[in-house]
Amino acid sequence: MNILTVEMISKSFSERMLFSDVSFTISDTDKIGIIGINGTGKSSLLKVLAGIEPTDSGRILYMNGIRIEYLPQEPEFEGDYTVLMQVFKGTSPALTAIREYEEALRRSNEDPKDRRKQEELVRLSQTMDSLDAWGMEAEAKSILTQLGITEFHKKISELSGGQRKRVAMASSLITPCDLLILDEPTNHIDNETVAWLEKYLKDRRGALLMVTHDRYFLERVANRILEIDRGSVYSYQANYSLFLEMKAQREELLEVSERKRKKLLESELEWIRKGAKARSTKQKARIDRYEKLKEQDAVRETGEIEIKAVSSRLGRKIIEIEGLRKSFGDQMLIRGFSYNVLKDDRIGIVGKNGIGKSTLLRMVAGLSKPDEGRIEIGDTVKIGFLSQEYTIMNEDMRVIEFIREAAENIETSEGVVTASQMLETFLFTPSEQWTPINRLSGGEKRRLMLLRILMEKPNVLLLDEPTNDLDIDTLAVLESYLDSFPGAVIVVSHDRYFLDRVTEKIFSFEGNGQVKQYSGNYSDYELKRSEEEEALAETRKEKTQPKPERKKEKAKKFTFKEQREFEEIDERIAGVEEDIKELELSIQKHSTDFERLNALVREKEKKEQELEEAMERWAYLNELAEELGLL
Known about the structure:
Helix 15 links the parallel strand 17 and strand 18 (488-492). The chain has 19 helices and 20 strands. By secondary structure, the chain is α/β, with parallel strands linked by helices. Helix 3 runs antiparallel to helix 4, helix 12 (399-406) packs parallel to helix 14 and helix 18 (560-589) packs antiparallel against helix 19 (594-627). It is globular.
């Protein structure tokens, strides 16, 4: 069933046309990934469909009563809200009740003796019961926990930027909607969380529209691809790998069409040059056709521009790390880490957020000092460090001026390459090279920062989340460039495809300062980790599994104690069951007295355990009674 229809919409930014005369539909079973080079209008298209921004022309038809939930790259937050209050930002009765209950609970805890506040809390608790909002709150806490957020009553203003983004994501996931729109949901979350989100969205019912450059994510979640290319939007009913095949076929057809256009253009040009007189209608038609052929946009060349990477000369000693130790407050980040970096190393660093991965890169780059241990850098080493915080100081500069500031040209194994040619390699067209930096998208700026670092001819690259905000085409260029880079590469990334494509060793941050080293790429690492976990689980099972006990022969008759127990067991079971019923009634009665409630729940659990033991004893005694002929 179609839930949204787009008819001939166009959108421009300043003088730049993003997309023109675009039409497509979205059905309730679509899981759509939008891809395209940074700056082509992917985020703008999401905002237009979400109703955040207007179109320049055309219209969008929505299904009656459609509910749309939109997660932008930079969500807005209320600093005074708690985590749960931020999650339940919606306006439905259940969500409003939860938000009001959270606020009332906070006020009640501040002044527990205020009778009016306590009464308000009871009233809101009853409202929560009637709306089944407790279940929604439990689901929210479950999703937050999966996203690494466990302090549900912490204020948003006290969270890091990455934590806030995950709270905003939880809010989008928990809010009921017909169309979920996500802009770069995998940015700034670790590999484990990406894998969980991948499964969650794959199993989720309803339409999904997302911008992401995580190719494994697109492969496993998307069943449809929308590609924005030079102002047009192409739809492919496919996941990522099938999209690549279909795109190759489309471009092959375009190239055939372009060859025909050029041949016809040459024929018409030859006719025009012969000095045809525009006297007849037929001659005028040919001249008009020639002018139209000239005005048509040529198909962009799809052949790869290959520039072999170049770096400064690298000596025998690269980077020696010995006995490294680093902590932040009470948290141990790195403990006893040692490694000698080799000339051709391709190292990927993985682990949960906030565990010390970026800290290691900063120490190697000389921007942070270890608590203990040493890091020695070889005399010939020239480090290029792309940090997550890298910014361009003067955004009034033009793109080519920023790159020329680093180098006018660089020498490669295939000759001299100019700054302009390097910009073309990294997907900046000649006209775009004269654009002021402040008019670029976030992804385009990130691409420019990366090229600036490469133009400075480093021989060791430290890349901290280089795939954040980079489009798939740029990632392919970067991966190809690193293939020929004659130096060491150390990269922190959550992009599993990029790690598989680039790395040959994995450093895994395990927590509590432990860093384990694995040979192979990310898929090899996942396989080895899985094998280790299975082996550990098997070992634990063997240790905890009780040794088989010899079966005692059953007595030929009841002992005095068993006889008495057999006579009283039914009455005992009935008494315990009655106790549990009374406790359940008390729990309902004291649902707002949290201290009393906890005590009642613990007592109920004990009684349930007592009932289970009594039932097992009842089964044994009755079986024995049957053997003795007493039943």
